[in-house]
Design brief:
The complex is a heterodimer of chains A (482) and B (198). Chain A has a 5-stranded parallel sheet, with helices on both faces. The N terminus of chain A is likely disordered. Chain A is built from 17 helices and 18 strands. Chain A is globular and about 55 Å long. The longest helix of chain A has 17 residues. In chain A, 31% of the residues lie in helices and 16% in strands. In chain A, helix 7 links the parallel strand 9 and strand 10. Chain B is built from 8 helices and 8 strands; from the N terminus they run E-E-H-H-E-H-E-H-E-H-E-E-E-H-H-H. Chain B has a 4-stranded antiparallel sheet, covered by helices on one side. The longest helix of chain B is centred in the middle third of the chain and has 13 residues. Chain B is globular, with a radius of gyration of 18 Å. The model of chain B has no long low-confidence stretch (mean pLDDT 94). The chains are: A alpha/beta (482), B alpha/beta (198). At the A-B interface, helix 3, helix 4, helix 6, strand 8 and helix 12 of A face helix 4, helix 6, helix 7 and helix 8 of B. Bound molecules: iron/sulfur cluster (SF4). Iron/sulfur cluster (SF4) binds next to helix 5 and helix 13 of chain A.
């Protein structure tokens, strides 16, 4: 049983001084095994997620060095990046994908790592299944060879993406070498407007800070907007932290967090729960603690958002016009290249633009709340004829919820098909590729050139905006429908 | 002992004056299906480099025989996006040993060092000088001296220093890697794990 072998107990606090400290400092400092002078910290990792794409070379590395996995019970494997989203019961047709999936299964079995492969009822996108099974907990350090590992920060964990060399480090020593990032706090206060979702909050923040605005920082999100937000919403926000360059983002755990975790399969139970809870309640930034940078935003300034360019910082309120080159602070050449790729002109209105594909899913917006939001708009309406919609739950557990809650019926009646879980068109490694030149309103996290298929054009947005586009066939303000 | 050692590199350079070069451009996701670290250089900048029919795009710098070398010079915010180390593997496998930019995304920077590529961060003004020097003479060379932590343009003699932490510098110079270091302190880690509580 992994619980018995698990080297980490849930108790006690590591208060080193009485100086006010941040949530980030508290968690970081508790995990430093050694400080290297003029070098990184040797940083202990509590939970390690792996998937089929970024792990095989790490396992090869172990083999070639002749070393073992140090704590196999701290690593969890799931297949997601490369998996088909239809007919998952059939053998995977693409031989390269099949090979990667087999390698994950083989390596997991060889080293005693728990593995949720294709078809397993717990299978799904790594950043969806970790939290929903109670593996992700407050105060932990969590890594995975995927940059959106920042998702888990929603629980008050320090979570970030790593490269394959680091996957090998965690497997072999449960540690990585990390310089401690600087600290940033982003406060959003006030009342969010109609149809303004956590996705809009994050796209708004990224548009303000730009894609490199938080590089070198770890972000704490604070303010009543996040306090009132559900865990699903907090995951959406923390997920996108990487898109402004931050290594990760985190939110102090509170009653919403504890309620979400309580009773999940791998969450602590009984006396262990009480101890854990007492500790988790200490995980917040003390009054007077300082940050290297701080931003304040007003909820009332945030509209439903959409992106018009080829990085997630190129976002705007859906009712606005695409900015003019003359209004930009710099980067005009990149801006022009980007608009050319997208087939847009400066100063154009986004509302009314024709859309070809709609994708709802990914670790950003592939949780139950997202499908509820999508369904609330498509209910009683019909899919626009020319739209191809890929509706992809983040996990089998989400898929089951969609069915139980009657959302599947709403989707079917409106002419939509529900696919099977996986990363799908978020990175288009499987067959779910948006064709060249086509426009997709996507609830995923990246609108880079070709991200969703060679030549594809991505408009990032919330599930509401995706739903409004799916039924009208054009970019539509979702506020009309709510 | 993961890679070659790095001390002084003098080479011509390939200019890529584009900002926010993300990892999906460096190596598109559909080429991440290998289970070995081999052959990624062929797909470096795949969609900028080749048309859909596999013919090379003439206007892309890697297809221009005038430019070559072991140093890649990119616009600001180089390597944003995904954590895929495949991006660094592709750059290394193609033959680059050093990437110069005025700003790097965090994960890419870490990955680069971990595979033996030296990321050199220079000022915006120096970056402009580099692009100008290469534009004036594609055969001009650049010298990156890791020991001295300097980058020098042969064309003008202009030199700038760059930062790198002492630990990583030592690794690159000696060809050590983090796994060697961590293996050597395994007992300390085990001791930490038994007392560590969260
Ligand atoms: S859904 Fe997209 S971002 Fe999330 S884990 Fe999969 S590929 Fe990465």
């Amino acid at each position: 049983m992994w619980e018995q072998n698990f080297p980490i107990k849930y108790f006690k606090k590591i208060s080193m001084s009485n100086k006010p400290s941040t949530l980030f400092d508290k968690v970081w400092d508790a995990h430093v095994v050694r400080k290297i002078e003029d070098g990184p910290d040797v940083f202990f990792i509590d939970r390690h997620f792996i998937h089929e794409v970024t792990s095989p070379v790490a396992f090869l590395g172990l083999e070639s060095r002749g070393i073992d996995v140090m704590f196999p019970d701290c690593t969890f494997a799931t297949a997601d990046h490369n998996t088909p989203t239809i007919n998952q019961h059939l053998p995977v047709a693409d031989p390269l994908s099949a090979n990667q999936l087999q390698a994950l299964e083989r390596n997991s079995a060889k080293y005693g790592i728990s593995h949720w492969g294709l078809g397993d009822p717990k299978n799904g996108i790594v950043h969806v299944v970790g939290p929903e099974n109670g593996i992700t907990l407050p105060g932990m350090t969590i890594v995975c060879g995927d940059s959106h590992t920042s998702t888990h920060g929603a629980f008050g964990a320090i979570a970030f993406g790593i490269g394959t060399s680091e996957v090998e480090m965690v497997l072999s020593s449960q540690c990585i070498m990390q310089p401690k990032p600087k600290k940033m706090r982003i406060n959003v206060n006030g009342q969010l407007g109609k149809a303004v979702t956590p996705k809009d909050v994050t796209l708004y923040i990224i548009a303000q800070l730009t894609t490199a605005g938080a590089t070198g920082y770890f972000v704490e999100y604070a303010g009543d907007v996040f306090e009132k937000m559900s865990m699903e919403g907090r995951m959406t926000v923390c997920n996108m932290s990487i898109e402004m360059g931050a290594r990760g983002g985190m939110i102090a755990p509170d009653e919403t967090t504890f309620k979400y975790i309580n009773g999940r399969e791998k969450a602590p139970k009984g006396a262990a729960w009480d101890k854990a809870l007492a500790y988790w309640k200490t995980l917040k930034t003390d009054a007077g603690a300082s940050f290297d940078k701080e931003y304040n935003f007003e909820a009332a300034d945030i509209e439903p958002m959409i992106t018009y360019g080829t990085n997630p910082g190129m976002g705007m309120g859906i009712s606005k016009h695409i900015p003019k080159a003359t209004d930009l602070a710099g980067g005009v050449a990149t801006y022009e290249k980007s608009l050319k790729y997208m087939g847009f002109e400066e100063d154009q209105l986004m509302i009314g633009k024709k859309v070809d594909y709609v994708f709802i899913g990914s670790c950003t917006n592939g949780r139950i709340e997202d499908f509820r939001a999508f369904a609330s708009i498509v209910k009683g309406r019909k899919k626009a004829d020319h739209i191809t919609a890929w509706i992809v739950p983040g996990s089998h557990i989400v898929e089951a919820q969609i069915k139980e809650e009657g959302i599947l019926d709403i989707l079917t009646e409106a002419g939509f098909l529900l696919r099977q879980p996986g990363c799908s068109a978020c990175l288009a490694m499987n067959d779910d590729k948006i064709p060249a030149g086509k426009y997709a309103v996507s609830t995923s996290n990246r609108n880079f050139e070709g991200r969703q298929g060679p030549g594809s054009r991505t408009l990032l947005a919330s599930p509401y905006v995706a739903a409004a586009a799916a039924v009208t066939g054009v970019v539509t303000d979702p506020r009309e429908f709510l | 002992m993961a890679y070659d050692t790095f001390t002084v590199l003098t080479s011509t350079a390939v200019p890529l004056p584009i900002e926010n070069v993300d990892t999906d451009q460096i190596i598109p996701a559909r080429f991440l299906k290998a289970t070995e670290r081999k052959g990624f250089g062929d797909n470096l900048f795949r969609d900028w480099r080749y048309n859909n029919d596999e013919s090379p795009k003439k206007d892309f710098v890697l297809n221009n025989p005038i430019y070559s070398g072991k140093i890649l010079v990119g616009g600001t915010n180089f390597g944003s996006g995904s954590s895929r180390e495949h991006a660094a593997w592709a750059i290394y496998d193609y033959g680059f040993r050093c990437v110069v930019s005025s700003f790097f995304a965090d994960i890419f920077k870490g990955n680069a060092i971990n595979v033996g590529i030296l990321p050199v961060q220079v000022s915006e003004a120096f970056l402009v000088q580099i692009f100008k020097a290469i534009e004036a003479d594609p055969a001009t060379s650049i010298t990156v001296d890791l020991n001295a932590q300097t980058i020098k343009l042969a064309a003008t003699g202009a030199t700038e220093s760059f930062t790198i932490n002492g630990y990583k510098k030592n690794n690159l110079i000696n060809g050590f890697d983090d796994i060697d270091y961590l293996q050597a302190m395994k007992e300390d880690i085990k001791a930490f794990a038994t007392t560590h509580s969260i």
